[in-house]
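Chain X:
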Amino acid sequence: MSNHLLTKYLLATFCSVSLMSVAPSVFGESSTPFGKLGPYKVSMSEVSNQGILLVPQAKDKNDEKKQFPGIVFGHGLCGAAKMYSQSLVRLCSWGFVVIANQQQEDCGVMNMRRPMQSLDAVHKFQYCVNSSVMAANIKKNLHYLASRDDVNPDALALIGHSMGGGVSIDVGTAVNIEQPGLVKAVIGIAPWNGAYPVPSSVVGKLNAPLLMFCSKSDTFCPCSGRATAVDAAVDSSPFPRLANRFEGRGMAYLFGSGADPYWNGGTEAIYKKARSAMLVEVLKANHFAIAGTDGKQMEHLAYQVGNMNGFAFNLAARPYGLVPTLEYSVAFLYDVLDIDREEGKAVMAKLENDDRVAKVYSK
């Protein structure tokens, strides 16, 4: 298949998956410069053994030989990269080459409400939840970006959601020990502090700026406290007697007997152990909405994962409106990657007064 046809196929697939038309209002806009689509049109394609590639299209002749900053995006557990298409397009449109790995996307059915089907999915789930596999894929993506002529090898960043967020912190730490300064920034969106190694146990060695987002409305990777999503799935089992036996053990059912329902202190523990970091607590966003532009596409992903994998995320209908995560991620990168420090800092300064944000911690 030609690149042109493949790009058209991916665009059609992404639009059908997100159940929406491609209209400006879909992406949502806010009062900050980065709260909307950026100035670049986006080309999407697939790269064999790497994943989905998004590249900003040159606006003029000056852009044709330009080297853009590069972003490796790590998806969440059981979350296909294409389900993050709006978020990936938003990032790319601000002048970033983005690669999103497509490995470890199919977890099968691991659902207490569908026990017979779940029996065949154990090995799939074990593969998908393997942090070492994801870390190897992210490292592979990172070196791929560094080798591209249209990517600035001195401006590489890692962004991940959930499992991808936790593993991105692990990879950023490990890679910069091996190749000092290769990773210039790391962003963790509701990062999973249950990856291995546990992110909070290694983040103290991360010598790159770190930005994290979390929400107390998140029932799977909350800022801190008990993760209740899996236990809620067990409680909703159609087999009451079986559910009673597993009461309080939903985490162990999916992640093994040693799984900590408090995720070793959660995102706040990662922040406390980091050298230099910023933590943004987002209001009224569940585990998936926090990684989106306006919550709509991510809500669809939440329903899919809830139905297939039994994670009972808080799916109450609520007007998410504009989710602040991506615009502040872009502002952060504009600053730390020296794209436009003045504009990046100006937008980041608005965090404290943003009514979508509960608290901002910085050190």
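Chain Y:
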Amino acid sequence: MNKRMGWKSLACVTFVVACALFAIVRTQAANKLDAKLAKKLISRVAGIELSKDAVKVQDKDISVLGGSSATVVAQIETAFRFAKNEKGEWRVAEIRTGNNKWEDVDLLVRAVNSEKQTRARAELETLATALLSFKRERGFYPVTTSEAALVDQLNPRYMKNIVRVDPWHAPYVYEGAQNRFTLRSAGADGKANTPDDVVRESSE
């Protein structure tokens, strides 16, 4: 750990995170999502393992959406370690997981963003495939700068599932001319034309 970072006098701050954890839990249609299963899945989210007692979910806190996804409101109790950065500002440095193990928060965030980048690339590829089908049939790509207008032209003939926002909950960006297109997610920082952008361009 950086020597310039000072540990807070209370090295371990334990509190109940009474959070509305809107976890989108995808399950097979034949499986019932109950409190026990939701608790198990949430305790392993983001690549960390929380103790079973740290997560509290009740069946009344589960709202199933269309049979293939659900919103779960959970209460999570854990501990965090705080540290000062180079500017003397407090930040969350570590989170306590199962078996009293401490995990670096920055590493967890990077792992989550890596998974989101993979998902963004897959969704942009789905859009690109639909665009290629559109061009093969009509001879040109949709000419628009609105991703919403683009999806309206592609769905449902060329793309069954609607894809409008990226894994960071920001709209995908589409720039299309008759003979080319660029699809973009601004990535974790939400800023276009930065190193973490996910981009899919036409190759024809």
